[in-house]
Amino acid sequence: MKILIVEDEPKTGDYLRQGLREAGFSVDLATTGPDGLHLALHTPPDLIILDVMLPGMDGWQVLRSVRAAGHTMPVLFLTARDEVHDRVKGLEMGADDYLVKPFSFAELLARVRTILRRGRSGTEPTSLQVADLELDLLRRRVSRAGKRIDLTAKEFGLLELLMRRQGEVLPRSLIASQVWDMNFDSDTNVIEVAMRRLRAKVDEGFEPRLIQTVRGMGYVLETPQAT
After folding, report:
1. Distances (CA, A) of 47 to 162, 163, 226
2. 148 has which bridge partners?
3. Nearest alpha carbon to residue 209 among 192, 200, 179
4. CA distance linking residue 126 with residue 124, whole number of Å
């Protein structure tokens, strides 16, 4: 699942991004209101963590514009403004939760997971399945044929991407940007190594093999067609 952080304090933004990535989420970070709004509208996340006091456009305006555009993704306000009327205003405008700085990351993570568990008005799936491979997005668990498979955070993110884009050949450049948040470097084999480890856990000992290499193009996860 992807989270968008809109936060202009560099230390807070980096702290949140690192913590949420370690928890297994894909994270985008914007430091101004307009940049946050652009990301929210053009690459909609599963959740927005939104500061109120932002340069260029405050959090209230960002939320108002997101809702006016018809987007229903949940929003968690994270701000130093702790007046009751500020909290009420945020919730009345369509925010899902309101957390006051300074905050405990453990509490923020618990709130994030609770909000995502509710889903987007009950329509956002909380699990993915391809053949007998199941991925639980909320509990961050994977199983195949009923057998639990332990993955690292990066492996989980990689598998989630492959399953969400089932049947689509994903180039290494896209995998690098989505899972590692980096530009693809043809001199590194980090993606090949990660894919090899993921295959060893997800495919070895099971039939059919789901993760395929498309030579010269990338990788795809799909159920082979019967011949």
Report:
1. 20, 20, 39
2. 143
3. 200
4. 6
- Ordered by where they begin, the domains of the chain are 2-118 (3.40.50.2300), 127-221 (1.10.10.10)
H/E/C letters for each residue in 12-77?
A: HHHHHHHHHHHCCCEEEEECCHHHHHHHHHHCCCCEEEECCCCCCCCHHHHHHHHHHCCCCCCEEE
Q: Could you report the per-residue pLDDT of 30-58, keeping only the tens digit for each?
A: 999 999 999 999 989 999 999 989 999 99
Q: Which of 177, 183, 212 is nearest to 195 (CA)?
A: 212
223: left (phi over 0), alpha (psi -120 to 50) or beta: beta
pLDDT, one tens digit per residue, over 120-161 is: 444 456 788 999 999 987 678 899 999 999 998 889 889 988
- The predicted pLDDT at position 81 comes to 64
Q: Cα torsion at 190, 173, 31, 40 (round to 10°)?
A: -130
pTM of the entire structure?
A: 0.56
Residue 144 corresponds to which amino acid? R
